[in-house]
Amino acid sequence: MSYISGGLSMLKSVEQSLPASEKKIAQYILSSPESVITMTVKELSEKSSTSSAAVIRLCKSLDLKGFQELKMRIAGDVQKPSTLEYRDIDKGESSHHIIEQMTHNGIQMLKETDEMLRREDVDQAVNEIHHAGAVHIFGVGASGLVAYDAQQKFLRAGRYAFYLQDSHLSYTSLSNASSTDVAIVVSFSGKTKEAVQFMKLAKKNKVKTISITKYGSSTISQMADIPLYTSATEEAMIRSAATSSRLAQLHVIDVLFMTYVSNYYDDVIESLDRSRAAIDHTR
């Protein structure tokens, strides 16, 4: 993709939680995105009956570098072909329709996650993982499955990484962590009680922290040194378990892992070969 996008998705994700003046600007942009692309900060503030300072604050609320990045992302959105909204599963659906809808929802979530992931944050996270004495990974429920996947990937790549399913054991392990360690916290909502507690303990021990949450301000993303985001789209209310959100979180782990492999290719290949050989001996 030759352009960045995701500005409109970001605005929709945080619109309801914004202060009044920023919310007015967000609503104006969402109602007329094409016109905003050529505007200055002053022009947008006048059109939305707010102030230049409010426009700048909105960009900060979106965790963007400035108004120029917001305009570039909106321009990318305008250039994209229109997409369908997420769809729910109704009673009595055929397997054909369920396959179609679940595939569509997954693709949408991955595309939006691509827009939310800041490339420099991914690079910084990978660098921290490489230099860490140990990588402590935490997640609850479906996010715990993602944490487990991260553990097995980075273990095979030669990192001392671990995920403990028991929260109390995780806290105990982290309480003895070194300041050279890294903690990765996975939580779609960004406010899961156990995950917040893990993040607080990591900060107390001066451990570098990486979060994987839905886009937007949350307790966990605000506390993290390096916040990484997935699409903020909420899943169907009738779901029996996390589906698209889990897929998006796994995607972020895959991005981190493959970036790590690419950046430290020779070392990783040796570790992967050793781990494969160790497993082969058990067969």
Can you describe this structure?
The structure is a single chain. By secondary structure, the chain is of the alpha/beta class. It contains 14 helices and five strands. It has helices spanning 7-14, 20-31, 33-36, 41-47, 52-61, 67-79, 95-116, 119-131, 142-156, 167-175, 193-204, 219-223, 244-263, 265-280; strands spanning 135-139, 161-163, 182-186, 208-214, 226-230. It has a five-stranded parallel β-sheet with strand order 2-1-3-4-5, with helices on both faces. α2 (20-31) crosses α5 (52-61) and α9 (142-156) packs parallel to α13. The longest helix has 22 residues, at 95-116. It is globular.
Can you describe this structure in just a few lines?
With 283 residues, the chain is an alpha/beta fold.
Keywords:
283 residues; alpha/beta; 5-stranded parallel β-sheet; 14 helices
Biggest sheet strand line-up? 2-1-3-4-5
pLDDT < 50 stretches: 237-241
Give the number of DSSP strands.
5
Helix content: 55-70%
- Which range does the strand content fall in? 5-15%
Mean pLDDT: 88
The H/E string reads HHHHHHHHEHEHEHEHEHH
Query: What is the CA–CA distance across the termini?
Result: 43 Å
Secondary structure class reads: alpha/beta
Give me the Rg, rounded: 21 Å
Helices and strands, with pairings:
Blueprint: H1 7-14, H2 20-31, H3 33-36, H4 41-47, H5 52-61, H6 67-79, H7 95-116, H8 119-131, E1 135-139, H9 142-156, E2 161-163, H10 167-175, E3 182-186, H11 193-204, E4 208-214, H12 219-223, E5 226-230, H13 244-263, H14 265-280
Parallel strand pairs: 1-2, 1-3, 3-4, 4-5
Helix pairs in contact: 2-5, 4-5, 7-13, 8-13, 9-13, 10-11, 13-14
